[in-house]
Amino acid sequence: MKRNSLVFGTIAGVIISTFMGISMAIMSCGSTDSDGGTGSMIIGFSAMIVAFSFIFVGIKNYRDKQNAGVITFGKAFLLGLMISLIASTLYVITWAVEFHFFMPDFIDKYSAMQIKELHESGVSGAALDEAIKSIENTQLNYKNNPFFFAMYTYMEILPVGIIVTLISSAILKKKQA
User: Fold this and answer.
1) Residue 17: exposed, middle, or buried by beta-carbon count in 10 A (0-12, 13-18, 19+)?
2) Which of 158, 159, 140 is closest to 148 using CA atoms?
3) What pTM did the predictor assign?
């Protein structure tokens, strides 16, 4: 089971990390997203689904080739979770390198975009001030707190992996005949 999680987690992690690295490099070269990033998010989550399809493949491979065609939901979930964690960790490491060495102004630009959207949304008064303060606090933590940075980045990808793990485990569970 460890070998399967390592192999399929690495494959999924390399796929999503490569995709993210290339797309962020293209974005940093001046490509603008007129829809406020919605297109990039759709492409990013689609890439996550493609990469996390290896959770399904990894569980099925383990069930059929190493476990005599049998796997419980719990064991399938554990294997899928390990694959998700490995892939997500590779994603976090890739983003940390890319952010800190190649795109250190990303969070500043992202925060500015969020504040601009707030102003355009019509929010005003105390609610606007509170929302801006929250964005600025997040921006500061993201730049200066490695734990916050890592957890925030895991929150982008790990929930998708857990959802794919739940679905794959439910589909692939197979009791002994």
Assistant:
1) buried
2) 140
3) 0.86
Highest mean pLDDT among 18-22, 75-79, 121-125 belongs to: 75-79
50 within 8 A of 14, measured Cβ to Cβ: no
The residue behind tokens 């949304």 is: 121
> Using CA atoms, how far apart are residues 138 and 175, in angstroms rounded to an integer?
47
The percent helix, strand, coil of the chain (3-state, each to 5) is: 85, 0, 15
Size of the chain in residues: 177
The Cα 40–Cα 36 span in angstroms is: 9
Q: Is the pLDDT of residue 35 over 70?
A: no
* Two structure tokens written together for 142: 């993201």
